Amino acid sequence: MSSSVISELEYMMPELSYYKDRKIFKKEEIEAIVKKRKKFEEILATKPRLSIFLMYIEYEAILERIYKKRSKKIHKKKNYITKRIDSLYKRAQFAFLDMEDLLISHLEYFISVQDKAKIKETAVEIPRKCTGSFKVWIKCADALRSIGEIEGSRILLQRALRVLPSHKKEIIEEYIRLEEDNEENDSPKIIEILKKQIITES
Question: Domain named U3 small nucleolar RNA-associated protein 6 N-terminal: which ranges (predicted)?
């Protein structure tokens, strides 16, 4: 067994003790979790394939849903699995640099678990890695808007307009859509300015 696999198994011990002490998972279920994770880690230690990372993440996501269902009555719940999934995404991104779909999937995971702090952190970080992707800028601006980060979303779109001049019309149209769908006091004025820019570009 490689040192990296041993390290991962040691790292999960507090998590497993937590599940056992609070009777969230049965003994045989904990053993199955260890066995499954060990298998994934052994494969990744020899040949880190994207498909294995994605299967590992999906397994942990299913485990997380079971955990949340069983731990509803527990106060001060630990988010071990959320941290583990975040770590797996980061490991995958290190192995497969600047893969757009992987980065967006990471963001979508945080959206699905409603982790506002991580949504903000990830949405700000991703465009730096995929600067030339129109899709990334819009997805991240949309994500920021969804958690009430209005100014952050607007700043991101303003940067996109500077970085992607060839997509200026599409960015402005998406900017208008976000302002219309999530109207603020100053949205009508911003929309008016943006529409004038479209006319100027035509």
Answer: 9-80
